[in-house]
UniProtKB/TrEMBL annotation:
Organism, as annotated: Leptospira kanakyensis
EC number of the protein: 5.4.99.12
SUPFAM superfamilies found in the cross-reference section: Pseudouridine synthase (SSF55120)
Annotated active site: 54 (nucleophile)
An example Gene Ontology biological process: tRNA pseudouridine synthesis
Any one GO molecular-function label of the UniProt entry: tRNA pseudouridine(38-40) synthase activity
Limits of the Pseudouridine synthase I TruA alpha/beta domain: 8-106, 148-250
Coiled coil regions in record: none
Similarity comment: Belongs to the tRNA pseudouridine synthase TruA family.
Top-rank taxon, per record: Bacteria
Keyword tRNA processing (UniProt): yes
Name of this chain's protein: tRNA pseudouridine synthase A
Primary role: Formation of pseudouridine at positions 38, 39 and 40 in the anticodon stem and loop of transfer RNAs.
Keywords: Isomerase, tRNA processing
Length: 264
């Protein structure tokens, strides 16, 4: 069966997350609804996705895929039709055909997020739903020094929602994490790993902020990881500032074609 990967951009403030839910607007529901109309004589399978984001989390370069019984002849027409039928807040940016065995979730070898922070004494009218506002002093140099302690394969139980991880393995590998100072007011933390657990990015950035504010004098991100106890880590930041940026697939160069657009 032909297999197609889509590159999807969405504003999380319009949706109750990615995953389909009864009587609630979600990204998956919006795209599947459009496909059911466009491909009514060549029905699409249910969408698989690289990362199932929560309510309010944004997507800049999410990858999902679906199969059809017959080939789709015109990708441009498909994209125009999907974007005409999906609601405000979601856009499909590109489409490529991928091998039959490709699965956007299980074939994925890396996922990348950014968390955006607005750092100013006074609030901005343009940050609501887009970034987390920090008005108190943060020692960003000290935060940056902590990042090395997160890289590598480690048990991230301290930085994950406790209820969702009870009795489960909590080892993941962070390939890269960096603090990017875009302007004096705008800072973002970019993190790439082989996988993330529930709220892991939001808790990780929240804990780094607590460290940077001087909440703990004698604790580092490394010592917090060693404790393997969620209650000893920092706050869970709101979803407003979290963006899924990119999914990586080592064995599928076709996916590189999807990202031939400029991403942040």
């Amino acid at each position: 069966m032909p297999n197609y990967a889509l590159l999807v951009e969405y504003d999380g403030t319009h949706f109750y997350g990615w995953q389909k839910q009864k009587n609630l607007p979600t990204v998956q529901s919006a795209i599947e609804s459009a496909l059911s109309i466009i491909l009514n004589k060549n029905p699409a399978s249910r969408l698989s996705v690289a990362g199932r984001t929560d309510t309010g989390v944004h997507g800049l370069g999410m990858v999902c895929n679906f199969k059809t019984e017959f080939p789709i002849p015109n990708f441009h027409k498909l994209l125009v039709s999907i974007n005409a039928l999906t609601p405000r807040g979601v856009s499909v940016k590109n489409v490529v055909e991928v091998p039959a065995e490709f699965h956007s979730r299980f074939s994925c070898t890396g996922r990348e997020y950014i968390y955006k922070i607005y750092y100013n004494k006074y609030e901005s009218s343009f940050t609501e739903g887009r970034a987390f506002w920090v008005k108190h002093h943060v020692d960003w140099d000290f935060v940056e020094m902590q990042l090395q302690g997160l890289i590598g394969e480690k048990d991230f139980r301290s930085l994950t929602k406790a209820k969702s991880m009870a009795g489960k393995r909590a080892v993941r590998e962070i390939f890269d994490i960096r603090l990017e100072r875009l302007t004096p007011d705008w800072i973002q933390i970019r993190i790439r790993a082989n996988g993330f657990m529930h709220n892991m990015v939001r808790i990780t950035v929240g804990t780094l902020l607590d460290i940077g504010k001087g909440r703990w004098n004698s604790r580092s991100i490394g010592s917090i990881l060693e404790e393997k106890n969620r209650s000893t880590a920092g706050m869970t930041l709101p979803p407003d500032g979290l963006y899924f940026v990119r999914a990586y697939y080592e064995d599928y160069p076709e996916i590189h074609e999807l990202y031939k657009i400029t991403l942040p």
